[in-house]
Write a structure and sequence with these properties.
Length: about 725
């Protein structure tokens, strides 16, 4: 029988290397100093100082390496399992963190003092902690609900046997014979109580043990495979790769134990009070956050004849023109875009082939072109492999008919629209979703015939490096939306080079898009990140844009989904919807404003760091600052590494050689403004939105804006405080 005399078991201790065990009660781990890395159900979890992690009853836990730490451990008598993807912290589930950290610290204080009635007080804290779990953390649904019950004596024995003998060959028949139970009943009751099949449980135990051994460089991979119970190194490698998506060798490079020395820790009562004091405040978060700033200081002399770079960013609006034509003025006025994509032209005409000539009616194509032009925009016509596929499916005619069809189409466009010199026409001539890649020659043969009508752009996976003299200019766009001018004859030859097919055959674009989609799906499954997903998307997009500007003296033509329209033929529709600037009904996402921030920057870049970019035009300046949550910026995984990041960033920027008066406009998007907006429109998903509703919601969701007039005599100090996931745009306009 377990002792229930103390209703809330709570201790402060150092946690060193601990072997694999099944946790018998729901447990809190509150790291008061140092850090702690543990293996929880086969997943490496890194817990920083101040963070709190929760482990459910019957979870498998081990601590693979020795670290310098002091951890408050607390155990609750609780039925139920709770889902926590990352440790609670100042930046992850902040409200839950504030309540639970304060409650644990006050309970620890009561436990130390042991004054009259302390058990009753601890019982109150026990119920309070349990209440916070139910209030803030989602409960685990489905098959794992079965682990809410106490393991039976028989299954406890069986689990204990597996934990002690996992390195040996274990079969269901062996377990059946050893524990005198039908293997069919054993399999059923084990799955019912543990939540995993016997085979799955054994495999998880072996993989967890292998992670412990990988921390130590003394074992080879062959040794680890044998010591972990795998029949061969290959079986170990395959199982490890399937579970963790990296090989054991790759994992070892990143996770290596660098501290094997024995550490000794003894705490006085006074030292315990010092550890918990900052968490026992009434407002834990504000108290702890007091000095929780990542301070970045920069001094920039704007008067020096410094080397500056330039970038030119143009957006190509991708949207359903017919149903969203009312958005075209906003695209021009609010977003500053000049181009709208016109796709699949053959689906928007009627054509009949008679005696080697075409009779075509443009109908819908004319309508789309007229809508674009009448709103002060230019068409960006995209011709790709789908168009040739459409031609073959619709007409089943020889290639010469394909050439004549586009000749006729271009003739009618030139007759209807007198000046098309500002229009773009882009050719994507590769089958990019075919293994090995393939060049569509009929598309290539169209290029020469349209170079006199439009500004021609040809897609290649990468911008070529060439010093060919330009006789007839043509633009090339690569997979990063970078554009440069080359010689047309040279590029037409380069289309046939094998290096492009080899690049396409790597499928990097498609793999990257799938990673990005999985990344956003993973975030949406997290209770903390789900309400912030629009802000996260905008924040990460701006941050990636900033850090990827490795060659600023470049022209960018960036396709941008306005309403969820796919960006390319092979681009996942679901990912386009997540990156869209607005919803299908017209509610602006945070991406709308992020795009405004990005495209409002001046072309001349005079200073750039990881977190901000400063641009100039004459005596005016524009600055964009972004503070991402770094553990979610890696598309391949949500990081569990010990990333040290403060809840706020303080940019201290000193601009020298500035004099006179400036109008300073500050626009901010942050989790705080986001949550304020969300509280005002809780009804949004429950009704059919009218245009008045949409306008109201869009008005509320605008960035927080402040305007002031400032005077400076040589030095202007900008102190910019940005919360994690925040973005700040500053416009400094000289008052003449």
């Amino acid at each position: 029988m377990e002792n229930k005399s103390i209703p809330l078991e709570i201790h402060i201790r150092h946690i060193g290397v601990e072997s694999m065990t099944i946790v018998s009660k729901l447990s809190f781990l509150f790291v008061l100093s140092g850090n702690l890395s543990l293996l929880h159900n086969g997943k490496l979890i890194s817990i920083r100082e101040g963070d709190i992690y929760i482990i459910n009853k019957n979870d498998i836990v081990s601590v693979p390496n020795m670290t310098d730490n002091m951890v408050m451990t607390s155990h609750l008598w609780a039925e139920g399992q709770f889902k926590l993807n990352h440790p609670l912290s100042l930046v992850y589930m902040t409200e839950a963190y504030e309540k639970i950290s304060s409650c644990l610290s006050q309970a620890m204080s009561e436990y130390i003092k042991k004054e009259e009635g302390f058990k009753e007080v601890l019982l109150g804290y026990h119920h309070q902690l349990l209440g916070y779990l139910y209030r803030y953390l989602p409960q685990i649904k489905g098959t794992q609900d079965t682990t809410h019950i106490q393991l039976s004596d028989k299954i406890t024995e069986l689990v204990d046997y597996i934990l002690k003998n996992f390195e040996k060959k274990i079969t269901l028949d062996d377990l059946s014979d050893r524990f005198f139970i039908s293997k069919f009943y054993l399999a059923h009751i084990f799955k019912e109580e543990v939540g995993l099949s016997v085979g799955q449980f054994i495999k998880q135990v072996r993989l967890t043990h292998s992670l412990e051994l990988l921390y130590h460089q003394t074992y080879s991979l062959d040794d680890i495979a044998i010591k972990s119970g795998f029949p061969s190194t290959r079986a170990f490698r395959d199982a490890f790769k399937e579970k963790y998506e990296v090989t054991p060798a790759q994992y070892r490079i990143v996770h290596t134990d660098n501290s094997n020395e024995e550490l000794s820790f003894e705490l006085s009562e006074q030292e315990v009070y010092q550890l918990i004091s900052k968490y026992t405040q009434a407002d834990t978060v504000n108290h702890v956050v007091g000095n929780s700033y990542e301070v970045i200081s920069e001094v920039i002399d704007t008067g020096l004849s410094m080397h500056t770079e330039h970038f030119y960013l143009e957006g190509i609006a991708k949207l359903d023109i017919m149903s969203k034509s009312n958005m075209l003025p906003n695209i021009r006025q609010d977003l500053g875009m000049k181009y709208v994509a016109i796709t699949h032209p053959l689906r928007k005409i009627q054509a009949v082939y008679r005696k080697d000539s075409w009779d075509i009616q443009l109908y819908h194509l004319y309508t789309e072109l007229n809508l674009v032009i009448s709103n002060g925009l230019y068409p960006y016509i995209q011709i790709g492999i789908e168009d040739f596929d459409d031609f073959q499916e619709m007409f089943d005619l020889p290639e010469i008919a394909w050439i004549r069809l586009f000749d006729t189409l271009n003739q009618q466009i030139s007759q209807r629209f007198m000046d098309t010199s500002q229009w773009y026409i882009e050719y994507r001539c590769f089958y990019e979703n075919v293994n090995g890649g393939e060049l569509c020659l009929p598309l290539v043969r169209l290029i020469q015939d349209t170079s006199h009508m439009y500004q021609v752009i040809i897609h290649l996976p990468e911008l070529p490096v060439t010093h060919q003299e330009i006789e007839q200019p043509v633009m090339v766009i690569d997979d990063r939306s970078r554009v440069r001018t080359y010689d047309l004859a040279d590029i037409l030859k380069r289309l046939h080079h094998m290096e492009h097919l080899e690049k396409i055959a790597e499928n990097k674009n498609i793999l990257f898009q799938q990673l990005a989609l999985n990344h956003f799906i993973h975030l949406e499954e997290d209770e903390h990140y789900r309400p912030l997903i629009s802000l996260i998307t905008a924040n990460q997009t701006l941050w990636f844009f900033n850090i990827k500007l490795d060659n600023l003296s470049t022209h960018f033509l960036q396709p941008t989904s306005i309403d969820g329209t796919s960006l390319y033929t092979y681009f996942p529709k679901e990912l386009s919807q997540k990156l869209a600037l607005m919803s299908e009904v017209g509610v602006y996402h945070d991406m709308w404003y992020a795009y405004q921030f990005k495209t409002s920057l001046y072309e001349e870049v005079i200073y750039q760091t990881e977190f901000f970019i400063l641009t100039r035009q004459g005596e005016d300046y524009r600055l964009l600052a972004i503070y991402p949550e770094k553990k979610i910026t890696n598309l391949e995984t949500i990081s569990t590494e010990m990333i040290k990041q403060q809840p706020f960033m303080l940019l201290e920027i000193k601009l020298l050689s500035l004099t006179g008066k400036y109008k300073k406009t500050v626009k901010e998007l942050s989790p705080y403004t986001k949550m304020e907006h969300a509280q005002s429109i809780t009804w949004m998903n429950d009704v059919n939105l009218s245009q008045e509703d949409i306008d109201y919601i869009n008005g509320l969701s605008r960035p927080k804006r402040q305007v002031e007039v400032i005077s400076t005599n040589d030095i202007l100090n900008l102190n910019i405080q940005i919360p994690i996931l925040g973005m700040v745009y500053i416009d400094l306009k000289k008052i003449k």
